[in-house]
Amino acid sequence: SAVISQKPSRDICQRGTSLTIQCQVDSQVTMMFWYRQQPGQSLTLIATANQGSEATYESGFVIDKFPISRPNLTFSTLTVSNMSPEDSSIYLCSVEENHHQYFGPGTRLLVL
Amino acid sequence: KQEVTQIPAALSVPEGENLVLNCSFTDSAIYNLQWFRQDPGKGLTSLLLIQSSQREQTSGRLNASLDKSSGRSTLYIAASQPGDSATYLCAAYSGGGADGLTFGKGTHLIIQP
Fold it and tell me: Is A101's CB within 8 Å of B41's CB?
């Protein structure tokens, strides 16, 4: 199974700033996914990122707020832009392998 | 749009009991269904994956069943232990290429020593 790491593991940020979260996989994968888990809620898919193409965003999420890069088959970044306290969440990276989805440890973000 | 519901939202039982966690989904056209475990401050650990053509999967003390026609899945935990305390998430996968998983809100489980 794929092993996924994320950086940073946690951060505290001021409103109006931006944070870029990195996701690294130990194998080449086609599909990478970014999820958000708000406090007390379940996971919600933000977008799907394929290498070499624009990310596909779910309803309610836009590229200006959550720009995503996917420069190669093992790496992706998610930026949370112009943050507000409502962006305080856990952000998780995920990959698909043989129709199984594997998750990174998550990035715990607190916006003050 | 797929919706996944988990019941109960929280459960606290004494150690040693057998227990059942429930998951229901609105769209039966799923490719598979996964059960995950989430520990505080950590990511998700995949427990069991049931393909749409399967009825159940077993791993150790865990058994997951799937009834696509009724839109239900259950996770059975035998002889519960304090180390089983965690949040258990059910997620449906439609298999549509770029589709991710649709998650329930989870069942927060506490096993009392």
Answer: no
- Note the pLDDT tens digit of each residue in B58-70: 999 999 999 999 9
d(C-alpha A105, C-alpha B110), whole Å: 22
Give the one of A45, A48, A103 whose C-beta lies nearest to B44's C-beta: A103
**What is the Cα–Cα distance from A49 to A21, expressed in whole angstroms?**
14
List chain A residues with CB under 8 Å of B101.
43, 45, 94, 101
- Residue B93 sits at the chain A interface (C-beta within 8 Å): yes
Distances (CA, A) of B103 to A36, B56, B57, B106: 11, 19, 19, 8
Q: Which two tokens stand for residue A94?
A: 């995920």
Taken in order B2, B100, A9, A5, is the CA torsion positive or negative? Answer: positive
Q: What is residue B96's predicted lDDT score, i.e. its pLDDT? A: 64
